[in-house]
From TrEMBL:
Signal peptide: none
Pathway: Cofactor biosynthesis; tetrahydrofolate biosynthesis; 5,6,7,8-tetrahydrofolate from 7,8-dihydrofolate: step 1/1
Name the UniProt record assigns to this protein: dihydrofolate reductase
Gene Ontology CC annotation, any one: cytosol
Keywords linked to the UniProt accession: NADP, One-carbon metabolism, Oxidoreductase
Similarity comment: family membership: Belongs to the dihydrofolate reductase family.
NADP listed as a keyword: yes
Xref: Pfam families: DHFR_1
Species whose genome carries this gene: Peptostreptococcus porci
One GO BP: dihydrofolate metabolic process
Length: 167
């Protein structure tokens, strides 16, 4: 586990669904604000597909690191080519808070490395059709250390913010 490496995700409460056809399942106003305020002035790491799903790239006021096995350079963002390169970067920069922000593929690779999970937990009013999922949060590995009140938007599902620490 690496102290300064975290994951941040918005997912459905029961099925851990995070995306469909390359896009997010929900665009929740206060969740976007939460993501911004949590990650701003810090570092984010995302897979190439997630990076290209951002409407504005790179995300402002953050160091953006894109993971790709290809040779593409991303204007205004850093490029890294393996999980190991990120791990080494995190270890060499212990004062930097580094947020793994997806997608599916990337969360799975870093689940055993991150020390905190910032989870936006969304109530599924009806079963969602998804093709991307966050890994299971195992009780024996993670302790819930923070839980907000529910946010109840008028025309969107209700959701709350959870933080888990690695046991
Ligand atoms: N709800 C949320 O919080 C949330 C957050 C983020 C994403 N998402 C959703 O997740 C879905 C995308 O997930 P995804 O798994 O398809 O794509 P992804 O993780 O965003 O990107 C996958 C790409 O990352 C690169 N990559 C992965 N592992 C690597 C490694 N070890 N070393 C170097 N490069 C590596 C590869 O890029 P190359 O092909 O260029 O080599 C791979 O094709 C979308 O639906 C998105 O909306 C949801």
């Amino acid at each position: 586990m690496i102290e300064n490496l975290y994951a941040i995700v918005a997912m459905t409460e029961k099925t851990n669904a995070i995306g469909r056809a390359g896009d997010m399942l929900y665009h929740l106003k206060d969740d976007l604000k939460y993501f911004k305020s949590t990650t701003e002035n810090n570092t984010i790491v995302c897979g190439r597909k997630t990076y290209f799903s951002f409407p504005k790239r790179p995300l402002p006021n953050r160091k953006n690191i894109v993971l790709t096995r290809g040779n593409t350079a991303f204007d205004g963002a850093y490029t890294m080519h393996s999980r190991e390169e990120i791990i080494e970067y995190a270890k060499n920069n212990p004062d930097e808070k580094i947020f793994i922000c997806g997608g599916d593929n990337i969360y799975k690779q870093f689940m055993d490395d991150v020390s905190k999970l910032y989870v936006t937990s969304i109530i599924e009013e009806k079963k969602v059709d998804a093709d991307s999922f966050f890994p299971e949060i195992l009780e024996e590995k993670w302790k819930l250390t923070s839980e907000s009140e529910y946010i109840c938007p008028d025309n969107a599902p209700k959701y709350k913010f959870l933080i888990y620490d690695r046991i």
